[in-house]
Amino acid sequence: MKTTRKEGGFKELKKVNVIETREGEALHFTKVEVDGKIRGDIRYFTVREGRSQMAPGKRGILIPENPKEFQGSVEKLIKSLSEK
Q1: What does pTM read for this prediction?
Q2: How far apart are CA 76 and CA 58, in angstroms?
Q3: Which of 9, 10, 16, 64 suits a disulfide with 29, CB 3.0-4.6 Å?
Q4: Taking a C-beta distance cutoff of 8 angstroms, is the pair 34, 10 a contact?
Q5: Which of 2-6, 34-38, 66-70 has the lowest mean pLDDT?
Q6: String of DSSP letters for 13-73
Q7: 60 vs 9, more confident
């Protein structure tokens, strides 16, 4: 498994999924190590002007140590989207 070192003690361990949102835009779901702790990272990637590859945004959503609380919040948001 290839690991990549990012700024600020951020190391990508495994790309879990990529969701294309629009042309030239995607959400990347990645297992990462931050300062010795394993976390989940959701980051927005875009194709920048003059480039052919996608580049990550500066800030992502770092899933906390308690992922159940995060999961519950996402499920509540999804449910609210289906309400009229």
Answers
A1: 0.76
A2: 27
A3: 16
A4: yes
A5: 2-6
A6: EEEEEEEEEETTEEEEEEEEEETTEEEEEEEEEEEPTT-SSEEE-S--EEE-S-HHHHHHH
A7: 60
* CATH level 3 topology of 4-82: Transcriptional Co-activator pc4; Chain A (2.30.31)
Contact in structure between 49 and 43 (CB atoms under 8 Å): no
Q: Which two tokens stand for residue 22?
A: 């629009």
Please calculate the CA angle 36-53-44 and round it to the nearest 5 degrees.
50
Confidence of residue 2 (pLDDT cuts 50, 70, 90): low
Query: Which one-letter amino acid corresponds to residue 2?
Result: K
Sequence spans of domains, the chain: 4-82
